[in-house]
Fold this sequence. Notes:
The structure is a single chain. By secondary structure, the protein is of the alpha/beta class. 31% of the residues lie in helices and 14% in strands. The chain contains twelve helices and 15 strands. It has helices spanning 59-62, 102-109, 129-137, 166-169, 186-194, 200-208, 218-225, 230-256, 275-291, 320-324, 330-355, 413-423, and strands at residues 12-15, 18-21, 48-52, 86-93, 146-149, 158-160, 163-164, 173-175, 178-179, 297-301, 358-359, 362-363, 369-373, 389-393, 403-412. The strands form five sheets. The protein has a seven-stranded mixed β-sheet with strand order 5-10-3-13-14-4-15, with helices on both faces. α5 (186-194) runs parallel beside α9 (275-291) and α9 runs parallel beside α11 (330-355).
Amino acid sequence: MMKRISISRRTMLRGTGAAIALPLLDAMIPAMTASAATVAAPENLKRIGYIYIPMGYNPANWTPQAETLDELPPSLQPLEAVKHQVTVISNTDLKNAYPGSHATSNSTFLSAARAKRTESSDYRSGTTVDQIAARQIGRDSQLPSLELSMDLLSTVGQCDNGYACVYQNSLSWSSPTQPLPSEAHPRLVFESLFGEGGTAQQMQAARRKRASLLDLVTTEIKRIKNRVGAADRDKIDGYLDSIREVERRIQLAESNAADNPLPDLDRPVGVPASYAEHAKLMFDLQLLAFQGDITRVVSFQLAREASTRTYPEIGVPDPHHPVTHHGNDPEKLEKVAKINRFHVSLFADFLKRMAETAEGNGTLLDHSLYMYGSGMGDPDAHDHTNLPILVAGGAAGGMRGGRHIKFTETTPLSNVHLTLLNKVGVPLETFGDSTGTVDDLFDPVTL
């Protein structure tokens, strides 16, 4: 008879002001149990994330020429190390985003719904796919979903051609009339993942009394490590080291805030001065949230629509939005391509981290699905056709990566949404203006 300590997947390291979820451990899988019947099984590790980039792309530097990704175009070259787990999808559209605008690019991306044109508070869009997923697969996690952004979206009123600012500010909607705010401050996201709440003043006072949030669970760490085997102790140490490193980087950004002038008016106070470092922190927080099963659904705006952020670190000192009105100027198109590549490089680094994080019978990336893209195609025309779309991860569910799927006829982006929802265990027959599923995206045996 095999004997082994078994602990619940819901086990937490608790202390006053802290609640640390654990990664999947061998001790969470009962002995003599087939992996298909445990939390290590792909069907029990449902996770999905959505990454939004604003203002479209330069298709000449983005679109693969072949049906495989053997040769990546310039904007996608940062994906080289993980391209076998990435599929590029071309020729999708968002019909309900017309007439073309920045506001509807953002609001329709995950809803496929037509936004009500209003400058007041009687706004209306549609429930977004991340929230539909959260209702089904987020019910048993600490946070049903996580809404993240890079910008301080504090503007209100009318932002774009008669549309209320809420359409640009909120990527996720829990109902047609309930937009969800996103969080851009890494500290606040960190505390929501690992803290036990309280007012902002209480959390700030608690931080002053400790070097690290992990100081609050030292006794619990020792207790749990005494109950598990050597391999699980290594997993716990690695996970806690990652939490400690993310917290250190947040603390460094906060300590430098007084000395670093804000590079733009949209960045919250106390975040890293570097856009790339800020984005990496936000991606690392997603990784920790998935690894600890704190949430299974994430949405993340890498920048807001109509952003005037500059990217001098990649040779684009010009504001993003004006550059996208390129008028087919080769110099402006090259700058758009550079921004596209920069954003993709941040996503690629995150995917590599996910692929390096072992979990169950594979990796965190194997057991997660991500969709990356924009609600706008050609930004100069403000159109919503031939959108830049990537799907990554999902190998445990039969995702067929390393390919370029180019539809012969323009196809609703909602077909992709419907396919991904079905794959993570949300059985719907239709979504938005969908006309079917994308049969080639997954192995037909496992779909």
